[in-house]
Amino acid sequence: PPPAAENLCPGAEQKVVFITARVHPGETPSSFVCQGIIDFLVSQHPIAKVLRDNLVFKIAPMLNPDGVYLGNYRCSLMGFDLNRHWANPSPWAHPTLHGVKQLIIEMYNNPKINLEFYIDIHAHSTMMNGFMYGNIFEDEERFQRQAVFPKLLCQNAEDFSYSSTSFNRDAVKAGTGRRFLGGLLNDTSYCYTLEVSFYSYILGGPTSTVPYTEEAYMKLGRNVARTFLDYYRLNSLVERPLASTPKTR
User: What pTM, to 2 d.p., does this model score?
Assistant: First the structure.
């Protein structure tokens, strides 16, 4: 049988990336981005294999299934904007948040698990491109380290904008997953909201906008997954096909 992946061997320390999407039912692009991440991670792509061997991905692709079913824009069946209830989710009123939060806290309290990333995928109705929101920390070094992943993603995805990426702590966002978990988890964890435009992305000059398609959203998801290869410097582990020897004349 093939050798077990390092991160799944008994007693091994696990590096975990936790991804959630579609907490706001009307933000359908977030589902396509998440689909791109999932499809890539379970594929036979050599990069996907290295990621599976070295990291554990936990993905909750739809945090608001009842709102999606009903065709709501932001709310759940009971009229809650779930992305403002992370601080104290009720198992009765916000069951998906409650379940995900319990799992995250269990993992955080497990000494064998390093919860390294939390990424919550949304879609944005007025901005262009893909971009991220991060948190503000007093510790300058932690603040700088948090900027590494979006900078790497910007190199991998032509539609991702680092200039639109921002780090904030405004009160209106206090109950969001990114803000709440950013305050809960320790300084080796990075929490982001990944936003992608409902409409289009800009290539080159401000006049050349490219409308998003389902495939383009999924491609952004694939590029998010690939960026973990760069972040963890796993590039040397990817099996590359042997280059053909150039014929001499």
Answer: 0.92
